[in-house]
């Protein structure tokens, strides 16, 4: 079969060894064989990302958007908790759509596409709004190819005791 090169943001090309592994005979997802496989996979994902035993990986069988929605919709226990969204591209806008659908109170720092946020603005919003529970942002904004300053925002999130949600689709394992 002729291989096509994909240059689109989103779908990635599948390597032949992965494609061949998919030819494995079907197994039942309620069997102990599957449980063992799943647990092994969870451990391997942590190893891949240099995470120790204090971390736990959760595999979502869905799209990247489904994974983002799963996490964002699970973080808010009270209607008073706010999210600070830092957005500067299509996938930041998609996070906003999810946040709005779940009616999570939101503060937003949005800069024009491909423009990094001003960290002083981020810190000021955090200082003035102690009811922010979560900071959300995209690592690699695939729509523009821009890398956001997640390390710096992560430090602020630690300083102010916030949960830091990062959409790392198209960045994880590449950074
Ligand atoms: C940064 C980022 N977030 C979210 C998504 C959405 O992923 P999916 O198309 O699997 O829902 C993509 C897809 O390209 C992405 O690059």
Summary, kept brief:
The protein is α/β, with parallel strands linked by helices and 175 residues long.
CATH superfamily of the largest domain: Type I PLP-dependent aspartate aminotransferase-like (Major domain)
The count of β-strands is 6
Rg computed from alpha carbons, rounded to a whole number of angstroms: 18 Å
Report the sheet-strand fraction. 15-25%
In spatial order, strands of the major sheet run 2-1-3-6
Distance between the termini: 32 Å
Name the hetero compounds present: pyridoxal-5'-phosphate
What is the number of domains?
2
Question: Which stretches are low in confidence, meaning pLDDT under 50 for 5 or more residues running?
Answer: none
In the CATH hierarchy, the architecture of the largest domain is 3-Layer(aba) Sandwich
CATH topology heading of the largest domain? Aspartate Aminotransferase, domain 2
Please describe the structure with a list of short key phrases separated by commas or semicolons.
binds pyridoxal-5'-phosphate, four-stranded parallel sheet, 175 residues, 6 helices, alpha/beta, 15% strand, two-stranded antiparallel ribbon, Aspartate Aminotransferase, domain 2, single chain
Can you tell me about this structure?
This protein is 37% helix and 15% strand. With 175 residues, it is of the alpha/beta class. It folds into 2 domains: 11-59, no CATH class; 64-167, Type I PLP-dependent aspartate aminotransferase-like (Major domain) (Aspartate Aminotransferase, domain 2, 3-Layer(aba) Sandwich), CATH 3.40.640.10. Strands 2-1-3-6 form a 4-stranded parallel beta sheet, sandwiched between helices. The longest helix is centred in the N-terminal third of the chain and has 17 residues, at 32-48. The radius of gyration is 18 Å and the shape is globular. The two termini are 32 Å apart. The model has no long low-confidence stretch (mean pLDDT 93). Bound molecules: pyridoxal-5'-phosphate. Residues 9-10, 63-65, 91, 138, 140, 142, 167, 169-170 line the site of pyridoxal-5'-phosphate (PLP).
